[in-house]
Design a protein that fits this description.
The complex is a heterodimer.
Chain A (H helix, E strand, L loop, with lengths): L2 H8 L3 E5 L3 H13 L3 E5 L23 H12 L4 E5 L8 H4 L5 E4 L4 H14 L5 E4 L12 E6 L2 E5 L13 H20 L7
Parallel strand pairs in A: 1-2, 1-4, 2-3, 4-5, 5-7
Antiparallel strand pairs in A: 6-7
Helix pairs in contact in A: 2-3, 2-6
Chain B lengths: L1 E4 L2 E4 L4 E3 H7 L7 E5 L2 E3 L8 E3 L3 E6 L5
Parallel strand pairs in B: 1-7
Antiparallel strand pairs in B: 1-2, 3-6, 4-5, 4-7
The chains are: A alpha/beta, B mainly beta.
Amino acid sequence: MRLSEIEDHLKNFRVGIAGAGGLGSNCAAALARSGIGTIVIVDFDRVEQSNLSRQFYFSGQTGMMKTDALKENLLRIRPEIKILAFQVKLDRENIQSVFAGCDVIVEAFDSSDMKEMIIESVQKELPGVPLVVGSGLAGWGRNEIIKFRKIDETLYLCGDEMTETSDDLPPLAPRVGIVANMQANTVVDILLRISPKAI
Amino acid sequence: MKIILNDREEVFEREAMSVSEMLNLKKFSFRMRIVKINGKLISRDDYGKAIINDGDKVQMFYLMSGG
């Protein structure tokens, strides 16, 4: 496929991203560059100085809501992209309405409890919608253990499945970026195999 | 019994087992995880009663914090 054909195809799809931290913001940037038509971003945090070590924000944006800052940055990449931003904390009750109409959803939360919540909720409330999960990205180096697994048609896994972030093993831009881009790569691959929904 | 665990064939010396038993036998101790039996997600509360039978396809992965 040529780039123009890929962009023509991807513009017909809507991708939901749960969380706009290291995984979510960088994944969104890759998806915007790839030509996804509509991106749903969900977060309730503000940009902090410490986020700039790995998240797709800039120094002048500290204090802004992440949803606002990310929308601004994605529109600078591709002005025609449609962004739906929700400033809410996702839970089992609102996931269905926030991600209604999404063709694929990206799990980009920090805490493992939230990861569990969204996997259970999407499988239950949005059956059939593929979910791309990030699990294991802490620290640096160890390229050889970062991997991808397709669990089944609705669940895909990116990460080393092994490292957890901590004070001594912080998330750093390179490894966070690798996993975020693996997630985006998975989304593009899924969407290039399917036809857009009839409107 | 023979099952497919994470795409690999595994043999257990019994006829059936619960998810909890499988996790113990395999020494999968890390708490945060997702388990699917034949594509069906098993929630944590059901590990004791969800039964894995001969020939089942079981998927398990850990949820590591960081995002």
